[in-house]
Amino acid sequence: MQIKKEKLIELVNLVTECCDVMDDGYVATWLHTPNRDLNMDMPIDIFNTEGSERLYRLLYFIDIGEADLN
Known about the structure:
The protein has helices at residues 8-21, 27-31, 43-50, 53-63. The protein is mainly alpha-helical.
């Protein structure tokens, strides 16, 4: 999957937020793994189709322990 140039900064910001919530080495895996809290969609697909707002909400709940990484 390819990211549009216009969304590159938004993706960098999302990855930075992911690094605050999970191990840096797991971020790429998390972005490309279907997630039950996203109706089994991959976070990267959500990013490409909807943007990052829904992912930031999920990361918040992961951070406070109310959602799992997968």
